[in-house]
Amino acid sequence: MKKKLVFLLLFLPFVFSCSTKEGKLSETEKDKMKTEVKTIVDGLIKNCNEANSDQVIAVALHSPEFRYVLNGHVLNYEEYETEVKSMHGLLAGQKINILSENYSFPDNSSVLYVAEFSALENYKNGYARISESGSWSMLFKKTDNTWKMISGFESYTARNVSGDGTNGINQLELLKQYTGTWKGEVGKDTLLVWSYDGKIMNNAATFIMKTTSKAKTLSEGRSSLVYDKKTDKFIETEYVKGTPPAVYTWWFTAKDKVDIFMIQDIANPDNAIEKFTINFESKDKIKQTWYKNNKEVWSATFTRQK
Question: Looking at the domain assignment, is residue 238 inside a domain?
Fold first, then answer.
């Protein structure tokens, strides 16, 4: 019911604001409009699969009124263009499966496309993701004798392909790379030391951490890590004395790279404001980087002590 309500709220303003010519569309007119728009939609799906961002963006109407809602984030034309280019820049390709689709006619000059879909996304770094429970709506209107998408709505849930799948990433096995005690400078005269004993019990592990400055302890804490097989991700709850717990989700996107997000971004990490990455530069050296709005804010290098 929530999906239907969102859909109606999104498109009702368009339905009642569009100017229409008098009279109802004949079945012949509807078939003609559907055929024309279906050609656009089929081409859009093909270009999405092949990560042809320019061709995908070209379907949208370049207008201040354009809006596209992606998993709850409302994008204007420029933001939509940036999102498509950013996503397609990471993709090696994908396969969108249309499970059902429908064409309707809100007025005599518009076509509304609604579909349910799933997708398998393959990334250039070997990472793979499945999108499920997808809903997709696009409202098309003819402009200068060309059908253009004037508004869109897209919603889905995403999960990694299983860690022992074709991408060759086994999350629990790669976790063992963290075994040992690591130390890095995280500020002037400030050191962060954390350790992991390499044990995994019931898909869970524990990290211990301490921050010091000039031999004085600034903070102490631990992180409880649980592997969720369904999403192929780790859920980490960080406990630091004197502060509220922080919850993250993270996973290996390659054998030497980890992506970390706040738990609220688990359904749509591509739109997260904050992101952390960890890169294993060698077996005894890692670099952690914090990004905000896709810009690097901070980084630190940690070396294995033992």
Answer: yes
Give 43-83 pLDDT, tens digit per residue: 999 999 999 999 999 999 999 999 999 988 899 999 999 99
Residue 150 has pLDDT above 50, yes or no: yes
Number of domains making up the chain:
2
- Are the C-beta atoms of residues 291 and 262 closer than 8 Å to each other? no
Is 297 within a domain?
Answer: yes
Looking up tokens 């359904």, which residue turns up? 267
The verdict on residue 166 lying in a domain is no
Residue 151 CB-half CA count within 13 A: 16
pTM of the model: 0.53
Structure tokens that stand for 123 in this block: 């990334």
- Amino acid at residue number 196: Y
H-run or E-run covering 54: helix 53-57
3-state SS record for 67-99: EEEECCEEECHHHHHHHHHHHHHHEEEEEEEEE
Residues 24 and 118 in one domain: yes
Do 153 and 24 belong to one domain? Answer: yes
pLDDT in tens, 176-216: 999 999 999 888 889 999 899 988 888 899 999 999 998 89
- DSSP character at residue 244: -
Asked which of 109, 128, 160 is the last residue of a domain, the reply is: 160
Contact 113, 153 (CB under 8 A): no
Q: Both 23 and 115 in a single domain?
A: yes
Instruction: Say if residues 161 and 72 touch (Cβ distance below 8 Å).
Output: no
Q: Do residues 263 and 269 lie in contact, with contact meaning Cβ atoms separated by under 8 Å?
A: no
CA 192, CA 213: separation in Å to the nearest integer? 9
